[in-house]
Structure formats: C-alpha cells, structure tokens
User: Which sequence fits this backbone?
C-alpha cells in the first residue's frame, strides 16, 4: 500500500481537474500535485464529433494524459476512486492506494443516466468520451457494410436507421454530423445514401430545452433540415423501452415502435455517485459550493465542473465554465499556500458554439452575434483548439488543424464530397472567417468603443449590412 502525505489531490481529469493541475504546475506550486483519473486519455468532449467523423485526429482530441503532463510537476495516477473521507482528509482507490491530502479538488464529472429505461444500458451507445466515439464509428461502419450486403430491403432499412435519443446540444450536434457523414460513407461502399435515416427522439416538443444554447433553437432546426439527409424529428415521445432493434415509446397515449439498427443515448447525465455519499449539502447530486468553489464545511476542498453548483450564481456545466474554474481553483490554492484569503470566482460567458454538420457550425459570440456556416465552423474549432491542455500540444495541434483546413489533408471526407470549392476557396474562407470574426467580437463585446474607434473607416456601417447587431 502506497502512502502519500500532504499533496494536493485532484480527482478527475476532465476540463476542471486537468486545468487545475496544469495551472498549479505552471505557477510553481510548492506542494506535490497528484491527478487521479481512471482513464488513460483525456477526452476533449466538444470535439468528439470531429473524432467520430475523422475531421480531427485522435492525437488532437483524445491525447494520453502522460503526454499532456510530460514535463509538468503533476503526478498522474491511473486508478479508480473508491472512497472519499472528508473528515480524515483521505482518498482510497480501487488498487489499494491511500492518499492523505492537504487540499482536495473534486472534479469527477458526471455519468450517463438512463432514467431506469428498460434495455437502455444493453442496447444503446453513449457518446461522452473518445473511447465511445471510436466505438460508435466502428459500429456504424459495420452496420453500413452489413447493409450493402443485404438484399432484403426491410432489413437494410433497419440497418441504415439511426435513432438519437435526446434533443440537447449533444443529440443535435451528433444528429447533424451523422446526417452528413453516413450518406458519404455509404456512397463510398456503393450504396444509395438516400436510404440513410437519422431520427432525433425527444420527450418534449422543444429542442435545447433549459439549455444555455436555447437561443440557437431556430438555427439548429434549420440546420437539421438542410443536411445531406434531413434529420427526422420524433417529438413528444417518452421512451419506455429499448430493444436490440428499436425504440419503444409512448406518444399521445399510444405505445409505438421505432425500428433502428443503431441507437445512441444523449438524453442526460447525473453527477458521480461517490459525491452523493459525502456529508455535505447538495442540489440534485451536485455539491453546493461557496463563490470561491470551496465546500462550506470543508474549506480545504474545492469542487468544480459537473460536480458542483453555487446556489447564488449557478453556472451551466460546459467546457468553458470548467476551464475557467480550473484556473480559478489553482489561483485560490496558491493564495491558501500563502495564507491569504481566497477570492470569488468570476466566470465570463463568451457565448456558445455548436457543430451543425460537416464543416458547418454556429458561433454565438457573447450571445449577441451569430456567425454560421463554414465561418462558424472555423471559429468553433479554432476556439476549442486554443483550449487544448498545454501550450506545446496546443501549438502543434492548432498548426496541424489549420494546415488540414487549408490544404484539405488527412480528411475522411473530401472537399468535393461536401460540395466545397478547391484549395484556394478554402484559404479564402478561413481568412475571411478570421478577418470578419475579429471586428464582430469587438462590436459584440464593446459596441460603444467599437463605434467610436472605427466610425471613420466605414467598417461599422459595412458590418451592419453584413451582420446586423442583435437588438
């Protein structure tokens, strides 16, 4: 049994946990830093759709922790947390290791929840990690190969039908990606891409209900209808059972069945079960924290990401929030080490980003300006790649991505398959997106300063014609 004394222990290697560890290391934090995570790779969740489609590589969005942490002061422990004793300041892992800590960061994330739906665990595929994205890609490829060899039209229809359960951001982004991607894959095998069917199943009639992306509802609905294969909607459908070849649901007091050879579950998550065992205040399994992200009764413990919520100023469980929380926790841990008071965390919401198909997205900058289509796609991917977990990896991957965008290399889908123009147009599109994005961001963030500074150039008037400001 290994005994480690007085380190700062971080549980969970998602955005909040990993960025806390990296920023502590960069600040020359004097205590040992231990990051405990059961997986060996970091899943950059916002870009899992690109991993599925091949638009980005595994090294870009599914890197190994040991590579990301190389050269840092962080000790990585691949293990599963078995118990947390807040009173004794102790963490036990499945392998028998014991970690006594001076400070603890809880960033265990969330788990897929199936709401006790019969058959969901056995017959649906989740989509929350790089491992699951790769598994889904292999499964879909296998289904397409089966379909091309199937003379029976009814069985082929089953194999070519995909049900996506849940119309939150993950369900919509996945449905849009598959509706562009699967027809291309099937055409390459010699099949008829028009036979592909993608169905988005939702309990209510509203998509993005209660989500930070609610204001993108109309944009998302239009995008789903304008894919290579339009996404079918099945709304007001309460899923009651999942079978090996379909989805049973209640609709208008009638039990009905949707036949599908692939069923993907994006309908919800629940906080890590270990958190529910802790003797602290909670809200639906998420730990209630102070404005400094500390547990009120255990100030040596911080919690962030999907694990935590503040009763006064709750934040959505998104990557940009967890990223900022990780930086703030690292700063507060440094203050504690210096015997200084911790400071409240200030989260700056910079807008939202969504993938709406291959090479298409929407960047809703500061919730004021929507940039759509390929420019939105470039801004989305460029923004996320800038959040990659260390500077060396960041520069390398961002350079590779930009090269791939401009020269269309290493792509699983070719430019002509997507109806794009050749290389020169790709360069022009990327350049136009970057050139246009800068003044749009400035205008959205500081409209008065933007107007005063550039009125003499005519740029404000031009942008008002190209992209009128939101009222």
Assistant:
């Amino acid at each position: 049994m290994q005994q480690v004394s007085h380190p700062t222990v971080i549980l969970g290697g998602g955005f909040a946990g990993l960025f806390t560890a990296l920023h502590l290391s960069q600040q020359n934090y004097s205590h040992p830093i231990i990051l405990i995570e059961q997986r060996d790779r970091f899943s950059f969740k916002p870009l899992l759709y690109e991993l599925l489609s091949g638009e980005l590589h595994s090294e870009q969005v599914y890197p190994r922790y040991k590579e990301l942490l190389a050269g840092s002061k962080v000790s990585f422990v691949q293990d599963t947390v078995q118990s947390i004793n807040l009173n004794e300041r102790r963490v036990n892992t499945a392998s028998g290791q014991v970690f006594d800590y001076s400070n603890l960061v809880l960033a265990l994330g969330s788990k897929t929840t199936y709401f006790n739906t019969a058959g969901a665990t056995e017959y649906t595929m989740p989509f929350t990690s790089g491992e699951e994205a790769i598994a889904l890609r292999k499964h879909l490829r296998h289904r397409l190969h089966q379909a091309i060899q199937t003379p029976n039209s009814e069985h082929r229809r089953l194999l070519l039908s995909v049900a996506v359960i849940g119309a939150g951001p993950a369900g919509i982004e996945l449905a849009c990606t598959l509706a562009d991607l699967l027809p291309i894959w099937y055409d390459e095998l010699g099949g008829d891409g028009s036979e592909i069917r993608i169905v988005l199943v939702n309990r209510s009639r509203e998509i993005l209900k209660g989500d930070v992306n609610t204001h993108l509802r109309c944009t998302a609905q239009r995008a789903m209808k304008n894919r290579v294969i339009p996404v079918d909607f099945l709304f007001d459908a309460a899923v009651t059972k999942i079978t090996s070849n379909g989805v049973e649901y209640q609709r208008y007091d009638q039990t009905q069945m949707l036949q599908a050879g692939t069923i993907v579950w994006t309908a919800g998550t629940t906080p890590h079960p270990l958190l529910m065992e802790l003797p602290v205040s909670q809200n639906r399994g998420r730990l209630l924290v102070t404005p400094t992200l500390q547990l009120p009764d255990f100030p040596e413990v911080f919690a962030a990401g999907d694990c935590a919520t503040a009763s006064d100023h709750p934040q959505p469980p998104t990557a940009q929030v967890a990223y900022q929380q990780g930086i703030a926790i690292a700063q507060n841990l440094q203050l504690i080490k210096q015997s200084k008071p911790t400071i409240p965390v200030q989260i700056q919401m910079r807008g939202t980003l969504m993938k709406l198909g291959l090479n298409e997205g929407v960047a809703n900058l500061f919730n004021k300006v929507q940039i759509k289509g390929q420019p939105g796609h470039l801004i989305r991917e460029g923004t996320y790649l800038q959040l990659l977990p260390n500077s060396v990896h960041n520069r390398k991957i961002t350079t590779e991505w930009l090269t791939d965008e401009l020269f269309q290399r290493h792509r699983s889908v070719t430019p002509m398959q997507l109806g794009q123009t050749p290389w020169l147009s790709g360069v022009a599109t990327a350049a136009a997106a970057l050139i246009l994005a800068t003044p749009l961001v400035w205008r959205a963030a500081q409209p008065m300063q933007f107007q005063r500074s550039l009125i003499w150039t005519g740029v404000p008037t031009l942008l008002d014609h190209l992209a009128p400001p939101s009222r």
